[in-house]
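In the laboratory, one determines a bound structure by crystallizing the protein with its ligand and collecting diffraction data. In a computational setting the workflow is compressed into a single prediction: the sequence and the ligand go in, and a structural description comes out. We illustrate the idea with magnesium ion.
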Amino acid sequence: MISLRGVSKIFDNGFTAVDKVSLEIKAGELVVLIGSSGCGKTTTMKMINRLIEPSSGQILIKGEDILKADPIELRRNIGYVIQEIGLFPHMTIAENIAVVPQLKKWSSDQIKKRIQELLELMGLDPDTTARKYPNELSGGQRQRIGVARALAVDPPIMLMDEPFGALDPISREQLQDEFLKLQATVKKTIVFVTHDMDEAIKLADRIVVLHEGRVIQCASPREILRNPANEFVRDFVGADHTLKQLSLIKVREAMQSDMITLYADESIPAAMAKFAQGYRSMFAINRQGIVKGYVNKSDINPLQDGSINQYIRTPFSTISPDKSLKEALTLMIQRDAGYIAVVDDHGTLLGVISTNSLHRLVGEPYLEAEREVREIGIL
Amino acid sequence: MEFFNYFFTRYEQIGRLLLEHVEVTLIAVVLAVVIGLPVGILITKNETVAKIVLYIVGIIQTVPSIALFGLLIPIMGIGNKPAIVALVLYGQLPIIRNVYTGIKNVDPAMLEAARGMGMTGLQILWRVQIPATFSIILGGIRVATVALIGIATIASFIGAGGLGDMIFRGISTINFNMVLSGAIPVALLALGTDYGLALLERSADPMQKSKKGSAHKRAQDQGGY
Ligand SMILES: Nc1ncnc2c1ncn2[C@@H]1O[C@H](COP(=O)(O)OP(=O)(O)O)[C@@H](O)[C@H]1O
Ligand SMILES: [Mg+2]
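The predicted complex, in C-alpha cell form:
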C-alpha cells in the first residue's frame, strides 16, 4: 500500500533528519514509528502526505509515485491527525468534520449523513455534539473529533502523529481501546507515531524503531520484546520488557485447558483417586461445568462419608479469557493466588492460569528446570 | 434650556451635517478596509516588507491631522476628496496592524491541520486564517472608525463638511450653543459606534463561541453570577 524506498530528508540547514529509510506497509496494517524525540518520526510521516518533500528516495502509494501526484489531492485522500488536534475554533463540530467532504464537493445531504455516522462511531451523541464548538468539549472528546474529521471521506490511509500524547493517562487508555476497536472495523492502513513503547505495543501490528533518522528494527511487538535488535532497542523497550510481553498475550492463548477437575458431587474415594496422580488441589465444578470452588487434598479426610462438596473452598479468583496475562498477573499478586480460574460469562470453567503458564510463555530458558511443581491439576 | 431651544430649532441642519459626517467617515473606513485588509494579509508573507509597511503607516499616524490636510491642499484642493484621502491614510495603521498580527498569531496546529487535510493556500486564508482572526480584524476596524469620526471633525477645515462645521463656526462666532450642537452629536456618534462594533467584535471571537450564545459564559469569565 505504502512503500518508502531509500527515503532521506536533509533540511536546508544541512541536517539529515531521515536517512535512507525503506519500509513496506501493507493494506490494513497499523505500523507504529517509535523513537526518542528528534529521531525523525514526524519528518518520515510528513513525507507521506508531502507536507515535507523528500530530498531523495521514492515513496509509492498503491504503486504510484506520490511526487508525481497533485499534493492537494493526495492529502485529501489521506487522513491526518496531530497531537494538537488543530480543530477550527470558529467552526462547529459538524463544520469541522465537513471540511474535507466539502473540499471534495460532496452534496450537503451526503455530508450530513456522514457526520451523523462518524459521531455515532466515535461514541458521541450526534444531536448534541454536532452544533457545539470545539471549546465546549473535553480534551478526549476533541481528539475523537480529530479522528472523525480525518475519517470523514473514508480515506484508505491515516497518518497519526502522537494523537493521544497530550491526553491524561485515563483518557489515553480509553481512546486507545476505542481506536483499536475502530481499526478492527474500518481496517485502515495506518502510520502511527509515538514515543511511548506501551502505546506502540498495544496498538501496532508492526513497530519501526527509529534512531537518528535510521530504521534500527522493524518487527512485530512480540518480536521486538523477545529479540531486540541491539542494546539501543533493548534500552528503549525498557527493563520491564517481560511484563510488557504479558500485556500482549491473551489469557485464552496462555491458559491450560487440559486440567483435571472434580465434580462437586463426586464421592471422596473417586476424588482421592484423582489426587493420587500427584496434585495438591483441584477446581470443583457442577455437572453444567460451572466452577464452584477448589478443593485441597490436605483438607480431605478419606474416612469421611458423602461427596467432596463439604471440602470446597471459596472464594477463588476468576478472570475472563479475553483479558491479558498482565491483568492475570496483577490479579495473582493482589489476591496472593498461585492460579486463577478462567471462566466465561456464565461461570463455566474454561481453563487455569498459573505462575507456570506465565513462565512457559515468557520465562527465560534457565527457569525450565525449576518448573516441576505440580499444583492445580495441571500436567 | 437655551441650548435645547437652539438645538431643536436647528435639528434639520444638525441632522444634515451628521449625515455628511457619517458619509465621509463611512467612505473613508470602507476604502481603508479595502486597502488595509489585502495589505495586512500580503505582508504576512514577508517579514522585511511587513516591518517597512508597519513603519510607514506608523509614521503617517504621527503626522498631526491639520498638517496632513495642509499638505494635501496643494495637490487636491479643498472639499471632501482630500479629507477622505487623509482619513484613509489614518485608518491604515490600526487595520493593517491588526490584520497582520491576527493572521500571524493563528495557532500553527490549525494551519498544519488545514494543510494536511488538503486545503490550498487561498482556502486556508479564507476559511481558516481570516475567520479565526475575524474579531481581531474587527477590533482594528473599530479603532480606525472611532478615530476617523474624530479626525473627520477637523476635516471640515478643508471643506469636508460634517459636524465640525458647526463646532468651528461656533468657536469663531463665540456661540457655545452652536459648538455644543456639533460636539455632542459627534461624541455620541463615536461612543455609539465604538459600543456597537465592540459587541460585534465579541460575538465574532471564536473563544466565546458556544451553542447557547456567549452571554452566560462571558458573565462567568468576568466573575459574574
Ligand atoms: N524544518 C526543519 N529544519 C531543520 N531541522 C529540522 C526541521 N524540522 C525538523 N528538524 C529536525 O529534524 C529532526 C527530526 O525531527 P522530527 O521528525 O520532528 O522528530 P520526531 O521524531 O521528534 O518527530 C529534529 O532534530 C529536528 O530538530
Ligand atoms: Mg514529532
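Chain B has a mean pLDDT of 89. Keep in mind that any predicted model is a hypothesis to be tested, not a measurement.
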